[in-house]
Amino acid sequence: MESEELRELTASERLPLDEEYEMQKKWRLDNDKCTFIILDKNLYEGSQGDHCSREIEAMVGDVNIFFSSNSHAEGEVEIMIAESSARGRGFGKEALCCMMRYAHEQLHTSCFISKIGFENGASLQMFHSLGFHEMSRSDIFKEITLSLEVSKNNSFETYASNYLIEIIK
Questions:
Q1: What is the pLDDT of residues 115-135, one digit of tens each?
Q2: How far is it, in rounded angstroms, from Cα 114 to Cα 42?
Q3: DSSP letter string over the chain?
Q4: Residue 36 forms beta bridges with which residues?
Q5: Each residue of 75-95: pLDDT tens digit?
Q6: What CATH number was assigned to the domain covering residues 4-159?
Q7: What is the pTM of this model?
């Protein structure tokens, strides 16, 4: 990841290219995480070329969920909108809600957590708007851990209710 701003917002480290490729391979094979790539529909429909090149052109970010045990009861979610021109346009919230709906309906996830940097006001505001509450703060890592229990709040379903979630194997 080349952008210093993006690395700071996502608490990511710069990796050599070979390590980036190795991490992508690991992600594809691991059963304890899931990624949705976020595309801008207008960019996709407005671009030229074959299906694959149009998808690459339209990529604006991703949303991930991680599971720390064999149980999918609790998942840690994170969102990254890499393209600065796509931030603040609802892509992150929409994709996060779709991921949470998928995890809840298909994997029976009942609690979501997220760790967000103190300085990332936009993400904190978005997660709070979905009903996430502060669990803890880490001055060492400069981040806030938020949680949402589905039994107490499933507002994410409202934002993702118009989507068909299809499992392709």
A1: 999 999 999 999 999 999 999
A2: 29
A3: ---HHHHHHHT-----HHHHHHHHHHHHH-SSEEEEEEE-HHHHHH--S-HHHHHHHHEEEEEEEE-SSS--SEEEEEEEE--GGGTTTTHHHHHHHHHHHHHHHHH---EEEEEEETT-HHHHHHHHHTT-EEEEEETTTTEEEEEEETTT--THHHHHTT-------
A4: 63
A5: 999 999 988 899 999 999 999
A6: 3.40.630.30
A7: 0.81
Whole-number Å distance between alpha carbons of 77 and 97: 10
Cα separation, 125 vs 138, whole angstroms:
18
Task: State phi, psi for 140 to the nearest 5 degrees.
Answer: -65, -50
Residue 94 is encoded by which pair of tokens? Answer: 């929409």
Task: Report the 10 Å Cβ neighbour count for 94.
Answer: 16
Ramachandran assignment for 105, one of left (phi > 0), alpha (psi -120 to 50 degrees), beta (any other): alpha
Residues 6+ apart with CB under 8 A from 58: 39, 40, 41, 43, 44, 47
